[in-house]
Amino acid sequence: METWDAIRARRNVRTYRPDPVSAADLERIAEAAWRAPSASNRQEWNFIVVTDRDQLQALSTVWPGARHIAGAAAAIALVVPQYDEDRMRLTSRYDLGQATYAMMVAAADLGIGTGHSSVGDQERAREILGVPADHDVAYLIGIGHPADRPLKPIQKPDRLPFDEVVRHGHW
To answer: Which residue from 27, 43, 81, 162 puts its CA 20 to 30 A from 100's CA?
Structure first.
């Protein structure tokens, strides 16, 4: 798929077919995160690829919006150090946003669906993944083949009108 088509085809997928995602495809999706921009090239992140059914089921309980993780073929947990300073915390979350989108576009390019989630129960998420207490499991991305329909460019996305959100030169 061309990059522009992958961007237009990407959508949140929360129901997945039962077939696995290949190890090569998971590595490619994880590499997209690894290649994402990072403020001052700090790269203060870790990505945990999860394919174990029991772990996926357990991770689906760390936030109400994570229920789809139980049915995913895989998930990637995005982990960052805890920060006392607001600037560092905000910058690291921005970096994770870029890594998230890079993974989602890379997955869409492969015809693989993704759905993101926050994490509320940090202690449980750390326990499931073996993450040290001084780090947060910030987000989860469910990964799998869409159950409902394949990914293809969306002609009329459910978005606010373009002219209402894109401005040129001033408000």
So the answer is: 162
- At 163 the three-state DSSP class reads helix
Burial 98-124 (b: 16+ CB within 10 A, else e): ebbbbbbbbbbbbebbbbbbebeebeb
| CA distance to 6, 43, 66, 69, 103, per residue, from 119 (Å) | 27, 20, 8, 12, 18
Where along the chain do its domains lie? Answer: 3-14+22-147
Give the C-alpha distances (Å, rounded to integers) separating 18 from 15, 111, 147.
10, 15, 8
Kind plus residue range of the DSSP H or E element containing 96 = helix 86-109
**Inter-residue contact 3 to 105 (CB < 8 Å):** yes
pLDDT along the chain (171 residues), means of 10: 91 96 98 97 97 98 98 98 94 97 98 97 98 98 96 93 94 92
pLDDT for the residue numbered 1: 66
Burial 32-68 (b: 16+ CB within 10 A, else e): bbeebebeeeeebbbbbbbeeeebbebbbbbbebbeb
